């Protein structure tokens, strides 16, 4: 080794040791939901759109859904996750479903993404016409840890029903769709973006589906109970053979922990709203077109992560 080579190697080693974060590839998981819902396919698209090989690899991970995701982020088992806006706020403030539980105070918002519609699905030939007629029926409410289960409980309560008034099952939407098709269920609940794969596949089957409407006084009670819910409708044709159906919707949000690297979250947020990612999202899942800078800061019930806030201020959508 020459007298010139040795100092050069020592100098390079010192540089690498001093700047590991600048050189090491980082990984950032997104907790999504079941593969038959909306969170997972949208998460896969976002992950592909914002990953920067050699710098950061973002991946979408199937999960139980909203509730499980915020708990996963708070516990450190996930770097980030998707969740319903109401659950995000309740978790961070210790209210609503989190009343009496320790608040997840480090939960921070990356972005508001799109609206999620409450689906109450029955077979097309079912005699059930409204939610109040689910009493005594076999009804899937989604898995424990999902936002759909929380929404289902709220919908049932607004119609004077409790879980004990049903024959409830706690399974994912794709499993529920299979059981509905086989005649082993009478209905299932799902909260997610339209169209959801499990519901769309079932609608396209020979059995077909209907969606029970959420409207009138029960819907008004629900909106009074949760200001995060908004009037909505599933448009005609979103699912094969299903006419326009009134329902309620809530925002889907992307959250992380306040301890996540500000620089990393800044780069991910910036990449999400850059032109290549926006084009990819708009041409993918129908809900991808709603993931825009204009929607990003709407409905924020908790603080933004410092990295995301920095980008939104630079972009002029936050002061």
Which key features would you list for this structure?
single chain, 10-stranded mixed sheet, 10 strands, 38% helix
Secondary structure layout:
Elements lengths: L4 H14 L1 H4 L2 E6 L7 H12 L5 E6 L4 H10 L4 E5 H9 L13 E17 L14 E3 L6 H12 L8 E3 L3 H9 L5 E6 L4 H7 L5 E3 L4 H10 L4 E5 L10 E13 L4 H11 L2 H8 L10 H4 L9 H10 L4
The sequence of SSEs as H and E is HHEHEHEHEEHEHEHEHEEHHHH
C-alpha Rg (nearest Å): 22 Å
CATH superfamily of the largest domain: Periplasmic binding protein-like II
Number of domains: 2
Beta content: 15-25%
CATH architecture of the largest domain: 3-Layer(aba) Sandwich
Helical fraction equals 25-40%
Q: Any low-confidence stretches, pLDDT <50, length ≥5? A: 1-23
Characterize the overall form: globular
Distance between the termini: 57 Å
How many DSSP helices?
Answer: 13
Would you kindly provide a written description of the structure presented here, covering whatever features stand out?
This protein has 319 residues and is α/β, with parallel strands linked by helices. 38% of the residues lie in helices and 21% in strands. It has 13 helices and ten strands. Strands 1, 2, 3, 4, 5, 6, 7, 8, 9 and 10 form a ten-stranded mixed beta sheet that branches. It is globular and about 55 Å long. The termini are far apart.
């Amino acid at each position: 080794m020459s007298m010139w080579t040795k100092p050069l190697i020592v100098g390079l080693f010192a540089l690498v040791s001093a700047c590991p974060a600048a050189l090491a590839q980082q990984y950032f998981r997104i907790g999504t939901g079941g593969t038959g819902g909306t969170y997972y396919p949208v998460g896969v698209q976002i992950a592909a759109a914002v990953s920067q090989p050699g710098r950061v690899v973002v991946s979408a991970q199937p999960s139980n859904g909203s509730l499980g995701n915020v708990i996963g982020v708070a516990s450190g088992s996930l770097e980030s996750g998707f969740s319903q806006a109401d659950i995000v706020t309740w978790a961070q403030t210790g209210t609503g479903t989190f009343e009496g539980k320790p608040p997840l105070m480090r939960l921070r918002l990356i972005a508001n993404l799109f609206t999620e519609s409450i689906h109450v699905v029955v077979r097309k030939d079912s005699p059930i016409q409204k939610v109040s007629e689910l009493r005594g029926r076999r009804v899937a409410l989604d898995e424990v840890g999902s936002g759909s289960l929380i929404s289902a409980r709220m919908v049932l309560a607004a119609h004077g029903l409790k879980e004990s008034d049903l024959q409830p099952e706690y399974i994912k939407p794709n499993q529920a769709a299979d059981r509905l098709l086989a005649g082993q269920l009478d209905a299932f609940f799902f909260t997610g973006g339209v169209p959801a794969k499990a519901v769309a596949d079932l609608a396209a089957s020979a059995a077909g589906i209907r969606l029970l409407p959420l409207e009138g006084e029960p819907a008004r009670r629900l909106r009074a109970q949760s200001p995060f819910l908004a009037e909505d409708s599933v448009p005609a044709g979103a699912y094969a053979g299903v006419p326009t159906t009134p329902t309620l919707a809530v925002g889907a949000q992307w959250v992380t922990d306040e301890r996540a690297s500000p620089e990393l979250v800044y780069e991910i947020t910036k990449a999400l709203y850059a032109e290549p990612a926006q084009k990819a999202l708009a041409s993918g899942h129908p809900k991808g077109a709603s993931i825009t800078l204009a929607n990003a800061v709407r409905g924020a019930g908790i603080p933004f992560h410092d990295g995301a806030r920095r980008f939104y201020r630079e972009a002029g959508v936050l002061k």
